[in-house]
Amino acid sequence: MGCFQSKTANVITSPDHPPVQHIPGSVDNDDQVDHDDQVDHEDQVDHEDQVEQENHVPCFKRFRLRELYDATNGFSGNCIVPEGEMNTLNVVYRGKLEGNGLVAVKRLSRLTWPDAQHFVDQATAVGKLRSKRLVNLLGYCVEGGERLLVAEYMPYGTLSEHLFHWNQETFPWEMRVRVAYYIAQALDYCNVENQKIYHDLSASRILFDEEGDPRLSTFGLIKNSRDGISYSTDLSYTPPEFSETGTIIPESVIYSYGNVLIELVSGKHIPPNLAVDIIMEKNAMLLMDSSLEGSFENEDVTKLVNLASKCLQKNPDVRPDTKYLVSAAAPLQKMEEVSSHFLMRLPTSTVIQPNMLSPLREACSRMDHAAVYEILLKTGYSDERPESDLHLLTQRVQELVQTKNLGDNAFRDQDFINAIKSYSELVRMMTVPYATVYARRSFSYLVTGEHNPALRDAMLAQICIPEWPIAFYLQALALWELGMESDARDMIDKGAELEAMRLQRD
């Protein structure tokens, strides 16, 4: 998920960029050309101002690197937000601009976009779009070797989190069909505006705004690289024509939309070929998410599944167009008068200011390692996703269980050296390790004086469970030891905010 970076750093760095001075005094030659040409681009973008004002969306613009650097606290690790597949070269940050509130900043690798002018052209074309069904693109930056996109910030996460995340309530059926309808509208709008190619459409590309309404990310309208692949997901989920030729066409987007429909119905990742086989065998109800039992009409499920089946046809020529998607999803909207905010049971305010110190926050605030240890021991593995246990069932069962038990026993006995050894072996054996294993190894590193590995493991725990307060509190402890007190306090505040949100959901 990227490296955590101190706000006191005086350079801007990324995994593949050379360091760039924090106060940019010059622009690369190719970037200067982009700036000169951008005068024309910004004239082109000055369109339908009245519509944009009605939607309360700022006009598309060119941002300065310093502005985005400050907005993201120096591209700090604690500002990273999930966006599709983990990608160390293209990372999305939460940023706060002066006077403009929160934004999402996608930082792309210069290696993947060596042609700055082409990047500007792509961003400017997408920046002309304005719709309540899209996460609108607000601007870009090409400066000092950087390639960045700026979009509206969506406070309620992705569809992937709501459908698959371990600690969320069941995602209501009414919201699932609303997602199908709104995203169909988004795709149809893009199609009308001649933005017919959407790269890697998935549940992670669908986000929820402050009203709880689903929107389609505009980041997917711009490739992660000029010549790179367009799909980052498993090939079993990609359109057949992409698997065969490596290229996508407008009909490929319809195929991906069909896969999203299957995920909405089932609440699971099901390979499209398998889903189509089940549908063809007249067993569509087998796909249905069991947690929704009693909250839907079978006829509506059948209609949505049949639409998915049409989208997932191997022959692109027989897939429906975007207007058909809209007309097919519209009749399924039975609760249009009820707000998404209500259906999703969202809090009345997205800003939560916890007044009370939780035991873990209090322990971290006073650097009480003994108290933190007791809390970690008591919490155990209770916060893990259910999917984590699958690895114990499908891999080398005896060896995995034995290694895990050795680590747990050593940790319980406060034998932190051997806990590190056993947990490290377990990490090597499992494709998706427990967040708890990273957390316990992080604490073990911490008390044995290895503060950088402790910080790294706490961040890995955050990757496993993005909204896990323990991961943020452990990062705070490591940052305190590394002398980064300001960042440590930020992490404690973030952990407290997540705890408050969890209590509010419960």
UniProtKB/TrEMBL annotation:
What catalytic reaction does the record list? Answer: L-seryl-[protein] + ATP = O-phospho-L-seryl-[protein] + ADP + H(+); L-threonyl-[protein] + ATP = O-phospho-L-threonyl-[protein] + ADP + H(+)
Top enzyme category = transferase
GO MF terms on file? ATP binding; protein serine kinase activity; protein serine/threonine kinase activity
Q: Which UniProt keywords apply?
A: ATP-binding, Brassinosteroid signaling pathway, Cell membrane, Kinase, Lipoprotein, Membrane, Myristate, Nucleotide-binding, Serine/threonine-protein kinase, Transferase
Provide the primary localization. membrane
The subcellular localization recorded is:
Cell membrane
Superkingdom to which the source organism belongs? Eukaryota
The protein's matches in Pfam families, at most eight in alphabetical order, are given as: PK_Tyr_Ser-Thr, TPR_BSK1_C
- Compositional bias, Polar residues, is annotated for 1-13
Annotated Protein kinase domain ranges read 75-344
- InterPro entries according to UniProt: BSK, Kinase-like_dom_sf, Prot_kinase_dom, Ser-Thr/Tyr_kinase_cat_dom, TPR-like_helical_dom_sf, TPR_BSK1_C
Region Disordered: list its residue ranges. Answer: 1-53
State the family it belongs to: Belongs to the protein kinase superfamily. Ser/Thr protein kinase family.
Q: How does it assemble?
A: Interacts with BRI1.
For this entry, the protein name equals Serine/threonine-protein kinase BSK
